[in-house]
User: Fold this.
Amino acid sequence: MLKTRMTELFEIKHPIMLAGMNWITDINLVAAVSNAGGLGIFATARCTPEEVRESIREIRRKTSNPFGVNVVLRYDSADKIKAAIEEKVPVLNYTLGKPWFVDQVHAYGGKVLGTTAVAKHAVKAAQLGCDAVVVTGHEAAAHGDKATSMVLIPVAASQVKVPIIAAGGIYDGRGLAAAIVLGAEGVSLGTRFMLTKECVLHDNFKKLCLAASEQDTIYDTKFDGMWGRALKSKGALELQKMRFGFLERLQAGLTIRKALNMSYGKFMAMGLKTMMAGDDGLSLWAQASQAVGAVRSMQAIYEGDMEKGFLFAGQNIGGINDIPSVGEVIPRIIAEAEKTMDIFAGKRS
Ligand SMILES: Cc1cc2nc3c(=O)[nH]c(=O)nc-3n(C[C@H](O)[C@H](O)[C@H](O)COP(=O)(O)O)c2cc1C
Assistant:
């Protein structure tokens, strides 16, 4: 049994977490991972605060094991965090911002998990009281930064005392063993769990991922305004070349406003607030482009739209060749990691 500081901290069986993925990590996938002994993380970027509350309650009905929620602090997240804290969510995982809620989470015995892609941000997250930090390498789906996991994991692990969890490029037991050897206490898997039976991703895109090689991703700022990695597909290539028209930005902004159930006033106020937030702020125009990305991501995930849809995916699509259930893939990764570690230790050949 692979026990690490990650399994101890979160009181889970295996050192594997489901990376928070907007639109992808719904309550069923989260519960499946937690029920299989990993740490399921529910992404809240698309949710209203009430949906966050309801989802936490629903996940509790589906699993008695620990789980968490992922909040993107750059977006309007205060009310969602308030709901998650009132519901005493076991793990509050955040990204893109500073965690102002650490004491409130610790007060009820919850854990705060930062997600960063830069070692110095991992140091800062630990200083601000995070219990563990996910470091995301360049290979990852969505928002890795410049350093690959091979470098980022040991650099971060040697600078940070709290457990480091490795994300980006990992999809099997060899990857888990390698991450541990490099100084991590476990792994966070996005693309691997996206390609499971329980995942809502449309079959068109599951098939496209299975057919892809490790070379078939694109790293660009065109998907949502930040550097991010997506599956090379017709829609992604089109987004890469495109200058969004005014009409599409406006329509996408309005679609997202509706999805978030926000009044027009609140939507505009959120845009202005983010814009005024200094370096991290985005212009309303950039946010409208982000909305275009969000709409096209939904078109891929829910509708399987091969013309317009785009999908964030990691380089590890090149190594993933099947669609197992979560209950199959987690024990398989653990068995393979244990075998790999035995080989390191000279116990097997
Ligand atoms: C479709 C999709 C949506 C994502 N949405 C989020 C998100 O809402 N919040 C977040 O912190 N990370 C998000 N990510 C990034 C993942 O949490 C994670 O960092 C990444 O998948 C890890 O790399 P891997 O795919 O190589 O395992 C998303 C990734 C994907 C594929």
Q: What stands out?
A: The pocket of flavin mononucleotide is lined by residues 19-22, 24, 43, 45, 70, 72, 95, 115, 136, 139-142, 167-170, 189-191, 194, 312-314, 316 (CB under 6 Å). DSSP finds 15 helices and ten strands in the chain.
